[in-house]
Automatic annotation (TrEMBL), chain B:
SUPFAM superfamilies: 2Fe-2S ferredoxin-like, CO dehydrogenase ISP C-domain like. Residues 2-78 form the 2Fe-2S ferredoxin-type domain. InterPro entries: 2Fe-2S-bd, 2Fe-2S-bd_dom_sf, 2Fe-2S_ferredoxin-like_sf, 2Fe-2S_ferredoxin-type, Beta-grasp_dom_sf, Diverse_Oxidoreductases. This is (2Fe-2S)-binding protein. Keywords: 2Fe-2S, Iron, Iron-sulfur, Metal-binding, Oxidoreductase.
């Protein structure tokens, strides 16, 4: 199949009956099972946090700072307290003694500055939207009404919104200690020699614009107490981490705090956080003894859900005349915003090891400076650090190809790790266990019709067609399956990266799986059921997956960083192995055979070479009855496992994008998009395809549409969905997707993770395509998002003779 | 306070409401119709879409008093006798949802779209659902689902017509 395919054709080949061959040749793993989760979601029976209504429940509304930087000089809540339905009004002063500081779990360096971060500002505000007071009232309308009656006086202080300006000597200080949070460096090989001896050096500065994650479900919190213990429902990705952190922050003992993440409407990293509102709702319920609920409006969320990206990347590459890459240097500024939140400073570090991409080189040098500004803090957003790194290396490899006059695919071929070279330790010190970049690229080129499109491009250039064709390449890899605990420890992260699972076999042979992962759209209930069905030989329908409630799932590290299957799924497999081993003991006893003579296939224990057998359901019932078990056998088949990986996993793939750019209007249209991803073995191809599609869409959104914009005073100008352009169905193309399968060698499932792949891969593919279309005009970069105006301006600048970027390449 | 009478998913409700109460808050907070979620405050996202007298509206931009005397169908009222609506089945079959938060609005908007165009092209579906945002799927599977739902709905109608 070498011709270009219609979008979606490959995907449509997935059928219910498909068995694509998973680990162990199982019946369920590899099958395009429709999801168990859907039944409640398509009928409106889902349990979002905001659905919860409890007797006597009160509603919280927050008053938020209208200034980016100011001293709070006076707060008067007396009038607000008299408004109808108002039960209480609190300012930061009211919580000062008990609210603690919002945690940062990733102090990346010894001398990092971690400023105090009160959940409600007491004396100074440092970004627009910071909570300064709240009303607690009998309904949400009355709570919002009374906010207007709170009087607060501010003494304005200077804002600083630009990272580079913030590092200037005379810049306004966000915190007393200054605006530099940390500097973190990493170096390998002789970078000076690599650059000195190289025939070609290319340097670029790329701006990773600030993004607003925009999960469709706004955040919501419900807190309640019986006077002793507390329950917090929250739209969070991390109920387990949240419980520990809230216990440490509020002083509520961990065993007196239950955290529940019910149905959660997307996260993309934005709900990987310990938020001010979660802490404050707990404190309010502790004060008032009544259940309280807070649900954010979207415009409140755009201001106060942590933002993503916002880095300034200066990257240079050195290469020989034949294209062999010698070294890469990166100097990064990362905008922390006003405070360091849960993993804010760690985000650029997650990218630090990925700037060499899939390429071999002699030397690498990385410096990152974390900078405070008077803006909402940044933190994890889909890919967290790795999209930024991948963008920079994939963009500059295309720039290098242009400099050398070489096809970007050919340049990559000359530099990438060959499939025969795995396992391969990169210049960044990571050991990539497996991969086949050649295979994925060949497949992608064939599906894309690369040569034909290049011919058309040449023709359009020749004709000086006002609509030019651009072709963008992204051959990415990513570091997934966060994470080996030892590695996290060596990077100063505050916790481990293991995952937990329990498997409980009920008397009737039905199975409950308790997982420490916390899905919010990923389909774990379905995928984990497939894994267990194969491992224990029980029907898919007989498995229930429990998650997201610390009272039923007491232990876990939750869901982010494409870790759930790679770490959590493996824990499920390991727990199933222990269940099987126990059940075998019982089966052997009942069949009066030695356990060594008993084999297990598809739910049945059989004495080798005989017709004697017992089903796992029979063993479950016999274990429940416990009338006739082996001497000393504990009457349960249940088992737990906690899996801590030895290494990350490294999905990879080749994404190709063709765009048509109207050089008269600057408008860009994606003409075709091909993605060939290698995520290792696949548990459910339908879910994998969905993750890839959604990831590509978010990456395209960064490339073409989205940007959080502040004015010079630090006001966010994109507070609503009318101002912040989330792409709709009309804005996005169809995608042609396919996969190659190179199993991971570092886990028994052979899986690599898929949640972030599309986002990591697609942004550079699209921007490379836009720049490729404009290269004959002398354009070497278009800052993201590549809006018609930006494209048009880039063309204008390139056409101006005095432009430093000018000249045909 | 104004008194209104609305029928929601086949049940009649007589309610006293503040004039400023949004229809979506009436549905969610007063009537317990939490199947209809809220995703924004500028009527951009479409998560709260319901059918009002047979046509789709964003229930965050309708006042409850404006719905007086109207017949409203939410996602909770779509299935009949425990059988899912073809559009619900199509979304499930085509994996047109991940977190599912936009799904109720997306399904209601899709059903209305078919009023005007019972067999929409891919482009027509994309244009027609421009007012409903999804952050998970990238929309391809939603487009497939709507076209599949359309086919199944027209088959069902043919079945009714010939029986």
């Amino acid at each position: 199949m070498t011709e270009q395919l219609d979008a979606g054709v490959v995907a449509r080949q997935i059928k219910e009956s498909d068995v694509l061959g998973g680990p162990g040749g199982g019946r369920e793993v590899g099958r395009a099972r429709r999801r168990k989760e859907d039944a409640r979601l398509v009928t409106g029976r889902s349990q979002w946090t905001d659905n919860i209504q409890l007797p006597g429940m009160l509603y919280v509304a927050f008053l938020r700072s209208p200034m980016a930087h100011a001293r709070i000089t006076r707060v008067d809540t007396s009038v607000a307290r008299t408004q109808p339905g108002v039960v209480a009004v609190f300012s930061g002063q009211d919580f000062a003694a008990e609210q603690g500081s919002l945690p940062c779990a990733w102090p990346v360096s010894e001398d990092i500055v971690i400023p105090d971060h009160p959940p409600m500002a007491v004396s100074e505000v440092r970004y627009v939207g910071e909570a300064v007071a709240c009303v607690v009232a009998t309904d949400r309308y009355k709570a919002a009404d009374a906010l207007d009656a709170i009087e607060i006086d501010y003494e304005p202080l200077d804002a600083v919104t630009d990272m580079t300006a913030a590092l200037d000597e005379g810049s306004p200080k966000v915190h007393e200690a200054g605006n530099k949070a940390f500097t973190w460096t990493f170096a390998q090989g002789d970078i000076e020699a690599a650059f000195r001896d190289a025939a070609v050096r290319v340097e670029r500065t790329f701006v990773q614009q600030r993004l607003i994650p925009s999960a469709m479900e706004p955040r919501a919190v419900v807190a309640q107490t019986d006077g002793d213990a507390f329950t917090l429902h929250s739209a969070t990705q991390i109920p387990h981490i949240l419980r520990v952190m809230l216990a440490l922050t509020t002083g509520i003992p961990e065993h007196k705090l239950r955290v529940v993440a019910p149905d959660v409407g997307g996260g993309f990293g934005s709900k990987l956080q310990v938020t001010a509102e979660e802490v404050l709702c707990l404190l309010i319920t502790r004060r008032l003894g009544k259940p309280v609920k807070w649900t954010e409006s979207r415009s409140e969320g755009n201001l106060t859900v942590h933002h993503g990206r916002d880095q300034l990347q200066r990257i240079s590459v050195a290469a020989d005349a034949d294209g062999r890459i010698r070294g890469v240097k990166v100097d990064l500024l990362a905008d922390m915003g006003a405070y360091l939140m849960l993993v804010t400073p760690g985000v650029p570090l997650l990218g630090a090891f990925m700037y060499s991409g899939i390429y071999k080189m002699d030397a690498y040098d990385f410096t990152c400076t974390g900078v405070f500004t008077t803006k909402m803090p940044t933190d994890a957003y889909r890919g967290a650090g790795r999209p930024e790194a991948t963008f920079a290396i994939e963009r500059i490899v295309d720039e290098l190809a242009a400099e050398l006059g070489m096809d970007p695919i050919e340049l990559r071929r000359r530099n990438w790790i060959q499939h025969t070279e795995f396992p391969y330790t990169t210049v960044c010190g990571l050991t990539y266990d497996s991969g086949n970049y050649e295979a994925a690229t060949e497949r992608a080129l064939a599906l894309f019709g690369y040569d034909k499109l290049r011919a058309e491009q040449a023709d359009r250039r020749e004709r000086e067609d006002p609509v030019q064709l651009g072709i963008g390449v992204s051959t990415y890899t990513e570091m997934c399956g966060l994470a080996p605990s030892r590695v996290l420890g060596s990077l100063s992260y505050g916790a481990g990266g293991w995952e937990h699972a329990s498997v409980r076999v009920l008397p009737t042979g039905k199975v409950e799986v308790v997982t420490g992962t916390s899905p919010h759209g990923q389909g774990h209930e379905t995928a984990w059921s497939q894994i267990v069905a194969d491992a224990l030989g029980v029907p898919f329908e007989d498995v229930a997956v429990l998650h997201g409630d610390t009272s039923s799932s007491h232990k876990g590290m939750d869901t982010y960083g494409s870790r759930s299957l790679v770490v959590g799924g493996v824990a499920v497999v390991q727990a199933c192995e222990k269940v099987k081993e126990k059940a075998k003991q019982v089966a052997a006893h009942l069949m009066e055979a030695s356990p060594d003579d008993v084999e297990f296939t598809r739910g049945e224990f059989r004495v080798r070479g005989t017709g004697t057998s017992r089903t796992i359901q029979e063993i479950a019932l016999a274990t429940f009855a416990a009338h006739d078990l082996p001497d000393g056998f504990e009457p349960r088949l249940d088992a737990d496992a906690t899996f801590d990986p030895d290494n990350f996993s490294f999905p990879h793939g080749t994404h190709l994008c063709a765009v048509e750019v109207d050089t008269e209007t600057g408008a860009t249209r994606i003409r075709s998009y091909v993605a060939v991803d290698d995520v290792g073995n696949v548990v459910n191809p339908l879910i994998v395809e969905g993750q890839v599609h959604g990831g590509i869409a978010q990456g395209i959104a960064q490339a073409l549409f989205e940007e959080a914009v502040h004015d010079a005073d630090g006001n966010l100008l994109t507070t609503t969905m009318a101002d912040y352009l989330l792409p709709s169905a009309a804005d996005l193309p169809a995608y042609t997707t396919d996969r190659t399968e190179t199993p991971a060698t570092t886990n028994p499932l052979g899986v690599k993770g898929v949640g972030e792949a599309g986002t990591i891969a697609s942004t550079p593919a699209v921007v490379n395509a836009v720049v490729d279309a404009l290269r004959p005009y002398g354009v070497r970069d278009v800052p993201m998002p590549c809006t018609p105006e930006r494209v048009w301006r880039a063309l204008g600048q390139a056409r101006t003779p005095q432009s430093t970027d000018g000249g045909l390449s | 306070m104004p008194r209104i009478s609305v029928t929601v998913d086949g049940i009649r409700y007589d309610e006293e409401v503040e004039p400023r109460l949004l229809l979506v808050h009436l549905l969610r907070d007063r009537l317990g119709k939490t199947g209809t979620p809220i995703g924004c405050d500028t009527s951009n996202c479409g998560a709260c879409t319901v059918l009002l007298d047979g046509r789709s509206v964003k229930s965050c931009s309708v006042l409850a008093v404006q719905a007086d005397g109207c017949d409203i169908v939410t996602i909770e009222g779509l299935s009949t006798g425990g059988t899912w609506h073809p559009m619900q089945r199509a979304f499930h079959e085509e994996h047109a949802l991940q977190c599912g938060y936009c799904t109720p609005g997306m399904i209601m908007a899709a059903i209305d779209l078919l009023h005007d165009d019972p067999d929409p092209s891919e482009e027509a579906v994309r244009e027609g659902l421009e007012g409903n945002l999804c952050r998970c799927t990238g929309y391809c599977t939603i487009v497939r689902a709507v076209r599949r739902g359309a086919r199944e709905m027209s088959q069902e109608q043919e079945g009714v017509a010939t029986s």
